[in-house]
Amino acid sequence: MTLQRDADRNEIKFLHKFVDLKDKRVLEVGCGEGRLTGQYADETRLTLAVDLDRDSLRVARVDRPADLENKIHFACADSIHLPFAKEKFDIAILAWSL
Amino acid sequence: MVHALSEIRRVLAPDGILVDLRPLADQWPVEVVSLREVKRTGRILDLPEQTGGDTASNEAMQEVERRGWFTREQQELFPFIYSWDTPSEMEEFVKDEWEDFFDLDDETKRVTRATWAVADADGRVRIRMNVWIARCRKQTSTMEIEE
Question: Do B11 and A95 count as a contact with CB atoms less than 8 A apart?
Answer without folding.
Answer: no
